[in-house]
Amino acid sequence: MPHDDLLQHASLIQPADAIEMLKADHRRIRKLFECYAATHEPAMKHRVATALFVALELHTQVEDHVFYPAFAEATNGAGHALVATNLEDHAQIEVCIEELRGLEAASEAFAATFHALRLTVERHVQHEERQLLPQAEVALAEQLEDLRDEMQAIKDQLLG
Length: 160
Hints:
By secondary structure, the protein is mostly helical. It has a single domain (about 15-160), classed as Four Helix Bundle (Hemerythrin (Met), subunit A).
């Protein structure tokens, strides 16, 4: 399969720091959305969607439990507002994934909800990469490697 490496959750390359890890997650998630759109085989669509849901869940968990709290602690009210907005996005993403898991993959409802998920994720990633991550790079400069290690430990634990 040409996409088998994309469907695996383990990475042999250790990102330099927490921000690079999050950006690598964003790239992988974008590629999974692209792969899903380019695939017409139902079994492959299902595999890609499943990998995408897991990738999104892993990503939101490490942000919610490690990265965002560290950023909020290191910043002021504006940083807290960025975190709050991103947490709202994560809640929307979680709702979409739960809905999708309960729908028939060939249904119009699945297609509509999947499209909504993609739009939410794309907006979220754009917002995060343009606003939150540049600020985090400065605010968390001394912690980025430690945060990466903590985030990787959570991913490893969740993937069991």
